## 1
Amino acid sequence: MSGLEGPEKLAYMANQIARYFAAQPGEGAAQAACDHLKSFWTPAMRRTITAHKGSVALSEVAAAAVALLPEAADKGAA
Amino acid sequence: MAKTQEIDFGTPASTAETQVTLTVDGRTVTVAAGTSILRAAKEIGTSIPKLCATDSLQSFGSCRLCLVEIDGRTGTPASCTTPVAEGMVVHTQTPRLAKLRKGVMELYISDHPLDCLTCPANGDCELEDMAGAVGLREVRYGADGASHLGAALDASNPYFTFDPAKCIVCSRCVRACDETQGTLALTVAARGFESAVSPSQSETFMGSECVSCGACVQACPTAALTEKSVIELGQPERSVVTTCAYCGVGCSFEAQMRGEELVRMVPHKAGKANHGHSCVKGRFAWGYANHRDRILKPMIRASIEEPWREVDWDTAIAHTAAEFRRIQAKYGREAVGGITSSRCTNEETFLVQKLVRAAFGNNNVDTCARVCHSPTGYGLKTTLGTSAGTHDFDSVEHADVIMVIGANPTDGHPVFASRMKRRLRQGARLIVLDPRRIDLVRTPHVEAACHLQLRPGTNVAVLTAMAHVVVTEGLVDEVFIRERCDLEDFRYWAEFVARPENSPEAMEAYSGVPAAEVRAAARLYATGGRAAIYYGLGVTEHGQGSTGVMAIANLAMATGNYGRPGCGVNPLRGQNNVQGSCDMGSFPHELSGYRHVSDDALRATFGALWGVTLDREPGMRIPNMLDAAVEGDFKGLYVQGEDILQSDPNTHHVAAGLAAMECVVVHDLFLNETANYAHVFLPGSTFLEKDGTFTNAERRIQRVRKVMAPKNGYADWEITQLIAKALGYPMDYGHPSEIMDEIAALTPTFAGVSFDKLDRLGSIQWPCNDKAPEGTPVMHVDGFVRGKGKFVITEYVPTDEKVGPRYPLLLTTGRILSQYNVGAQTRRTANSLWHEEDRLEIHPHDAEERGIGDGDWVKLKSRAGETSLRATLTDRVAPGVVYTTFHHPDTQANVVTTEFSDWATNCPEYKVTAVQVSPSNGPSDWQEAYEALSRRHRRIVAVGDPA
Amino acid sequence: MTSRLFVPKDAAALAVGADEVVRALTQAAGKAGRRIEVVRTGSRGLFRLEPLVEVETDEGRIGYGPVSPDEVAELVAAGLFDGAEHRLRIGPPEALPFFARQTRLTFARCGIIDPLSLNDYRASGGFAGLEKARAMAPQAIVEAVKASGLRGRGGAGFPAGIKWETVLGASGARKYVACNADEGDSGTFADRMLMEGDPFLLIEGLLIAMRAVGAAKAFVYVRSEYPQAAQTMTEALTLCRGAGLLAEGDIEVRLGAGAYVCGEETAMLESLEGRRGQVRAKPPLPAHAGLFGQPTLVNNVLTLAAIPTILSAGPEAYAALGFGRSRGTAAVQLAGDVKNGGLFETPFGLTLGELVLQIGEGTESGRPIRAVQAGGPLGAYFPASLFDTPFDYEAFAAKDGLVGHGGLVVFNDTVDMAEQARFALEFCAVESCGKCTPCRLGAVRGVETVDRILAGRDPGASLELIRDLCDTMKFGSLCALGGLTPLPVLSALNHFPEDFRAPHEAAE
């Protein structure tokens, strides 16, 4: 991750988070990862990842989690 | 030394439940069976003369002053070694005893210098006291006999002297080194009249294995072992009980004073964390408080390229407030933040986060725990429900198995390590998980049953493999799990860990630990009786730091190791107030008591009291702040008592972030490395100069008491308050106790805490509220705080920091006994005599391949950067692994550490960095450039100087 | 026909040339064309006869002694192999009054059998006690020891059965038996003689003790000055181990490191643990927390060696012997200026005078006896006026003396009792472990004070001081080393005050 900046760094972090929740039992991995992002990431970070979700490499669960963020809805609404 | 406010009962208390009643000099006393007569007498205020007995040590019976007569028994037994018996009738003062005691004292004094008036212990000498107590009036042996009066003084230790001429060979020092400290550095050499206290094999103290903990000095009844500060300054005249400001053990000390001058720090016997023991840092390394490097006047500058300009407090505060307001006006409310310190008091920490949340108006507050134990907070809260260790330190005395994971207690938490070693000497068995052979693996009379020397970064692999053994070999505590844990989660977890890919055999490929060793350790942990886990930053500072913490919590749940003394899961906190700074709401997403900022009702409560509306979104963590700064979005930072440039990973990135800010305010004792990039310097106060509380690793809240006025003019909490006021946010606390009252009002786990109660009880372990008015030594006794214990799946994810042809070695970092963290304090004391520089430990094989000899300069290079330091060849580290400490800014070990971090908390992965090591002729270009920058950025123009 | 000869290899015999005698005998036999077999035994214990050569004849064993190597040829020529007459011929040794007057229970085999022959041992009744004990419950063994009245032979005379019972009743993860063979008293040699002359007896006693108290491991702590004893014990143990006799647990020989104080039981335990030989405070008693903190039975060699007899012959037979509360036999060791120096096993109760004058037959030098030191270097000096004292723990204690380990050292009229008092203090100063103050400092101050008295410096005050010091040491010391040092000093002062006058004073 050294050298990663901005959206790429955030994507790396989101993938790490998603990997943890993906390993947990049940179907709610994306929601749990999304909740984690809501709990610990600033709105600005969430906006950035949402804005760049198409251009950064996100795992399936990470992408689903980002899609569940309120910022994604805002963007969609906008 | 022995002067203390406390009573010395002569022998340790008995823990027996049976009570025994006896008569001492006609007075009846009832004590626990097993109590010595000496102690029983003292319980009713009868002082039997004694010299070799002291209640911190087992009775020894050598001085022969405490002899008594017992009805129905012949002879004159020593009261220190004779236990009480029911109906016993004891006489402590008879003509026969008086004659015997005089006879013994006459012998003592016949071999003791008669220079009492000029002796540093004059007024604090038990020998002097006893001569008086037994009424010795003459010494008839003459002055021409054999004596030890010409024996040479050993002044080799920087903090104390050993004068064998004044030694009475009571062995208290030897026994303190054995029993209390567990180093066994001292012995009595020779025999008979020639008997003499000897460090190691007739070495000097400094040349011996002595770790300078001070236990021997503390135990000495004469001036044979005396602090140099006492020799220089004289006997103290008053003392104030306070709490050490070094590690997370939280030792209680008496600061012994002469006027405004600190004479010595003496461990406080009633301190429940340390029980009268100390280490070389807390006991002796306080000279930094008076060091000439200390900055006592505020300073500002427009740019970091300018020299510092001393200003008065008003100017500095006004300038700070103006700058923050300017930045917020220009870049937005989110463009500033603050960092609280785990070195400062709870009250100060609380005020800084309040300043950020209420006066800055955002949640951009974080603390240095980010880079150490934030995964503990996440992991233990998730599995157990509380972000804290489960047990008190005393609990270790009941442990049958002790598992130490990624911690080096003898260096990092020496006073607790001594208690651990004592328990291990008593027969508890030890499991160590560490890439490095820490001292505890093999120390006098202690040898680890298992040392799993895993590759850095594979904790989760090994811990999950241990769980595999516990589950597949039927070692789980089914009753405990059924009663206390979420069964569905358990079943998922059991199925997960039982998979073949989680077996020790499968994990061996990652961890390098032979499967048989993992199996043996798991069996011992699960079946060896009460098992306690103590872990450190070797667990948390990883990409899977939080997962590692949860793997530990799982393992303890699976084996039922909660709720009773002798077991539990306990983080060893690095700094004095890591626990407290986290408790106080220093994390950007949490208010005090670990409650998320998104809770509307909670924010409303705080908002009502503080008169503001709080932001509902989490703020930036330290790495986020630095990232944002590099990207131009974060411009102002208030850093209290922390040196992020030296302590945080990837120094280049930290420097770039700081350099991109417009106002960095450093509030510290010294011009630290971060201050090289600062625009405002606010001089801080030491722990001796303020009131407050620290919370140690066992959740124990203890008082810090002011023993002298702040040399910089203000206590730190007052400075934060001045900034708030200058920003237009009113803060008007008259005393830190009022801040604690506010904390208690806002935080359910602190509801019952007050300075008054702390003064009364000595210390309080939170939670302290109506349910537990005197606090909670052991948590989760009847059930977990979160309800049912939660088993979490701990899939092992190898770190992306991998070795390869360019960086074939794994670097891991740690600390050493004599130095503390970034060394700002300890480097400014004689502790540096033990550790002058950071060194790189490298295995002889790896060194040989590279042509590196012991003591050679080497270049240490990673993807992030490079530095140079000298090498130490040792097989403490396995081939393929190198190790260093990060105490010295000249080395800047964090130049090479990377930005990989824990998935949940962004705690940096300090413990794994792929590196290459090669011969070098001295400091690297970067080090030389930084040295020059430091010199330039530390220039100060005093007020009145024509700048 | 092969002649069977018996020559001791006991250290006392070796010291006066027993090995050379054996070589000379072999040579002479070769020359004479006689076939001989030499059995190396222990010593019978009358040292003026060593090297004692015995030959088996139709009338039993005939002794010749003391034999020097250059007399061998002459003896062989005279018919030694057939028991013929010679001026060195003493006839059947057991008929000598010194032996005939003894009651040998513990030392019955000493000097008679091959110490390392299990067959000899068995043939002479060995292991009968062990076999009995193995059929008994531990408590029953303890009862037998109690009933025998046996008291510890190391010096303190504590009832052995009570100590055994305490260890039996103590709880611990493991238990140990530690045999104290650190025989350091001047004028004593009984432990050594027994270990060199009948090691299986001690092993048998140890096994019974281990069974009785429930110990699975025993140590024999032998002083380093006894290499032959240590070697004999080690070889005997190897034989027993090979024969599967150590059923109760293994027994290990450990060598001391040359400190007198390691004969003190707690210092011995420290030494066995690998530490500095320093005395421990009691309690806890070793019986409760001894070796490695576990319940430990500490007994002297002679105490343990008395056990097989007590079991095989029955405790009543043992208890029937003796005097007052001192039951059974004592191994009296006569040394110093005495004609019949050696080991004399007899029931308690003979008077000191009988022992030194009748049994010992007075001084070797022919000079009058002035004093007898009983009980080792820390025992009291008895003047002739106290020769009516019966050899008994209580009777000796009543005269401010002690039986100790049974050593009697005879001094003739040339002895300077002030020098002897000074020596006792000097001995204490040299041997003190240094733990307790009265012993560590007192011994040195005592020597200095005696010197002052002898130099005539303020003798009155110095005499008072030495008595005060003796009081401090006697009642203040942690162990018997410092506590007993005043005994020889005070006895010299009390019985021989004339020796404490300074030279000029004496001349007046």
Note: The interface with chain B takes residues 259, 261, 276-278, 281-283, 429-445, 448-449, 452, 461, 465, 468-469, 471-472, 475-478 of chain C (CB under 8 Å).
## 2
Amino acid sequence: MSPVDFALSISIISIAAGLLGSLVGLGGGIIIVPILTLFYHVDIRLAIGASILSVIATSSGAAVAYVRERLTNLRAGMFLEIATTIGAISGAYITTLISGNILYILFALVLSYSAFAMFHKRHQTAVLVTSNDKIANYLNLHGSYYDQSEKKDIKYKIKGTKIGLILMYIAGVISALLGVGSGALKVPAMDMAMHIPIKASAATSDFMIGVTAAASAGAYFARGQINPFIAAPVAIGILIGALIGSRLLNKIAPKYVQFLFVAVLVIVAIEMLQRGIG
Amino acid sequence: MTNKNSKVEAVISRVLQIGVLISSIVIIIGLYIFFTHNNSLILNKGSYHKFTSSSYYFPRNLSDLKQSIMSGEGIGIMTLGIFLLIMTPLLRVATSILLFIKQKDKPMTVITFLVLLILVSSFYIGIKIK
């Protein structure tokens, strides 16, 4: 394959990755990494470098629309970013303590559990109308958005901010260690622990993953893991995909977003398990 | 409260849009130069593997990057675009601080300021310790 064909084909695949990633609140890394390593025989370290950039591209590209439509809960997102960024910093030190394989397997187990739990509660879509969570009330982290598929305003309250912070810290650690946006952990944390509606969870996760990834991007850049020949076409494709995907999410019924997310979780869990064993 | 908030949302959305637009334009210019200028005929012969192998050199610190851009290399301009894309979330956080200060929202100002502080130091530590 010639260099031009490589750049063109990888950017087209990245459009699909950006589209899916923006819809479910994940970076496109889950598609980019296996395709780069399995089909293009790119070194895993460079694939992960491209993945970190794809997370930033998905996040910024999708957030343009999500923030404007208020699907992103800005205040909750920024509040939780404290935990994810501290997690990302500590991740850099933890790398030396835990072996990568164990981490992949642990991550796979957590994701399988989330997939199971989210599938189990798929019929409960009622939003929280009151909350006695002191932090959420003090900072006014509650949100509202207009749901285009249901054609109505959704006003929701938030609870479980403390458990949310803990889960986001873990998500930040994993993000730094494995080069993923860890939206796979952020969405269930917001959806299940904090009662943020699934679409708002996905959009807020998309908003946050860019900051988490940017926190560790400096190290990836300095280590020479972000090869522009690979990362540049990936970034362009992802941005196009995320711009399209972020215009679709609000039009899709919440239950389909949930199904899509659970399906993606299962795939990511299998992928992480393979990396842990392989 | 609602009005103020929707203004915050409009500004942040616009900042992200500008960041994404500028970085993608720079990346596309870089890609164009990479594939069409200088020794592009030699570049496009053979397999792409020479660019994805670990021996292929590209800028990985700021002084190399500067030099590469100055000599008009496509790879340097692509790296600059990538760098701008990485900076976009930072710019977004910095903008939010200003917006919360303007709204006199003290707790959120402190929170976003902390996020920026952690983000910048993590980025810096990352570059230093690799």
Note: Chain A touches chain B through 64 residues (CB under 8 Å).
